Amino acid sequence: MLASKLYSPTLREIPADAQVVSHQYMLKAGMIRKTGNGLYSFLPLGRRVILKIENIVREEMNATGAQEIMMPIMQPASIWHESGRWTAYGPEMFKLSDRHGNEYCLGPTHEELITTLVRNELRSYKQLPVNLWQMQNKYRDEIRPRFGLMRSREFVMKDDYSFDADEEGMHASYQVMYDAYTKIFTRCGLNFKPVLADSGQIGGKHTHEFMALAAAGEADVVNCMKCGFAANVEKANPDPIVAPEEDLQDMELIETPHCDTIEELAAFLQIPQEKTIKAVAFNIDGKKTVLCMVRGDHEVNDVAVQNLVGGDEIGPATEEELKAHGLVPGYMSPLTADEPDNETFFVIVDPTAMNLYNGVTGANKAGYHYKNVTPKRDFKNVTVATIRLIDERDTCPECGGKIEIVHGIEVGQVFELGTKYAESLHATFLDKDGKARPFYMGCYGIGVTRTMAAAIEQFHDDHGIMWPVNIAPYEVVVLPVNTKDEELMAVANDFYDQFGGDYGEAVLDDRKERAGVKFNDADLIGYPVQLVVGKDLKANGNVEIKIRRTGEKEVVPKEKAVERVREILQTLRKENK
Fold first, then answer.
1. Considering the entire predicted model, what is its pTM?
2. Domain 474-574 belongs to what architecture?
3. How far apart are CA 564 and CA 568, in angstroms?
4. SS3 of 33, please?
5. What fold does the segment set 252-384 form as a domain?
6. 297: Cβ contacts below 8 Å, ≥ 6 apart
7. I need a surface site. Which of 52, 56, 278, 515 has the fewest CB within 10 A?
8. Using an 8 Å Cβ cutoff, are 381 and 187 in contact?
């Protein structure tokens, strides 16, 4: 590709709404353009990256024997009503109607559609196992679309569904996809880690997320530095902390003006936060109010709360919902509140908070707390369950070793769904005995556009992107420093032709721009290898090769330049860099 013909409008300034590096550089390098809130157009360079990721996915899927299909983006509401997820999925679903009043949604995922597709076609155990996948756009009405392609309303996703006759077959299909995903992200050049995760709305009991480790990641990942255990923080259950025993003191009501937070309370009473008991309240599905009690220095794991109580959508409880159960915001506790009925009102206490002696907690009276609270004595009819988030002061749930918590970007996830969708959608096959059995299903997804963003978050510097060679828009850029010099241009054009010309993996920067502009754009776009044709060609017959990722430069005779570039590219591919 000739740079003079390449539609790649670069920017010199970072747009104000671009908060993360991947969003900034994709805009600056002319790879994407915002067309609406959470909506982006892909320009030629960005599109080439997406296609390369898709090709890697396609090759690895073909290697597993999975078969590619294409399902519609628009799905009838009837199949979502049948599965029970039309309302359960939540407000992220884009819903629409046709001129006849028939309801549809823009597919946020395709479990319902794939299950109804095969239920009339796969009738016998002899046809199983089957694995069907697609590369398709997905749509989710994010409440706050942000971070460019990392959280957008329209995105490219590879989704995959396996159908087996029994649980053992499902496990086997799951492992095949787990291994394939490991190969895919390795070939994409990502620094990633598979971690145990929560299934969320998809359902199922066993799932792994593939996390690209990056500072901009929204997910927190627990990593054991001893045994290698890894899990999303929502999935890692910390061990209870046992507090030192103390002589029990009588509970006492005390005035604590302007102490609405744990920090303010601890400072006012001059006690450590570990001696306080924090209250956080949620509402689930507009029907269930849940009061959660954790030690003051801990945070509530809302996923654990939702899994314990049940329901589809969890959010902060309103002041009205709290007052309905005798709770005063900022001063909440089970003390003097309504007794939980575990139907509309729940009180859950984390074991570590339950172990405290003579602690401080809210009195359900503005400006007042109780001191000398010992939950085992004073909290009545509460549910005790692990509902706090693990932190780096805890030890590994598996081996007791030291842990670290790192940020990650979820680029893929694999699920064992069991018979959830097959049962709700009446998708069955006949077994060896002629009995109807529900399919055992697996579901496997890759965020293709998110993988692109994750690669930039991991590999960049102050000058621009440093693409892994396998997904770079072009592998090589040929940079003649002076397009007016016929000798330099003749050599540059010869290099370009040897790399395949207009149909190869090289860009010839033939623009009538200053050398500095060309160098800056080459670094910004992130071509893995730069081949500079400059003054040294005339003086000594040499050209310069620069490796973008490392910044290494070497000077070689022009006759050996193409061969040397190919050697470098081969090494980069071998090392997945």
1. 0.92
2. 3-Layer(aba) Sandwich (3.40)
3. 6
4. strand
5. YbaK protein (3.90.960)
6. 262, 272, 273, 274
7. 515
8. no
